[in-house]
Design brief:
43% of the residues lie in helices and 32% in strands. By secondary structure, it is of the alpha/beta class. A hairpin with a 2-residue loop joins strand 1 (2-8) and strand 2.
Length: 122
């Protein structure tokens, strides 16, 4: 399951749970692109629980969307990643260090209050 929810003009929440196949990936990426079309100074709260690696088909779909996904980088200022897996939190922090223009900070699942505060700049 991968759901994208627009919480405000500049806020998107993404929820990932379990396996992602090509159909799920395509729908989620279409939703993400549509919901961020007019976004500026965006904030993203990304919850990842019990993630399985995406199927090869899902990875193929993601590759076809890469040009559009790179376009999102200029629209998003901050991304808080909540995950139950330490390797995902570490990966998120590394991405935040190497992708210019976006701050990414990771939190353990259950640290929603801290993640929300960080997104708000507190």
């Amino acid at each position: 399951m991968l759901t994208i929810t627009k919480k405000a003009d500049n806020r998107i929440d993404i929820e990932l749970h379990g396996e992602i196949d090509s159909e799920t990936m395509r729908k989620a990426l279409d939703d993400l692109i549509a919901q961020t079309a007019e976004m500026t100074h965006g904030l993203v709260l990304y919850r990842i629980h019990e993630m399985s690696l995406p199927t090869l088909g899902a990875l193929g779909v993601e590759m076809t969307y890469l040009p559009k996904l790179f376009g999102l980088l200029g629209k998003i200022d901050r991304c808080a990643v909540l995950s139950d897996a330490a390797w995902i939190r570490t990966s998120a922090e590394i991405e935040g260090a190497i992708i210019p223009g976006i701050e990414i900070k990771s939190f353990a699942l259950g640290e929603d209050t801290a993640a929300e505060a960080w997104l708000a700049g507190d």
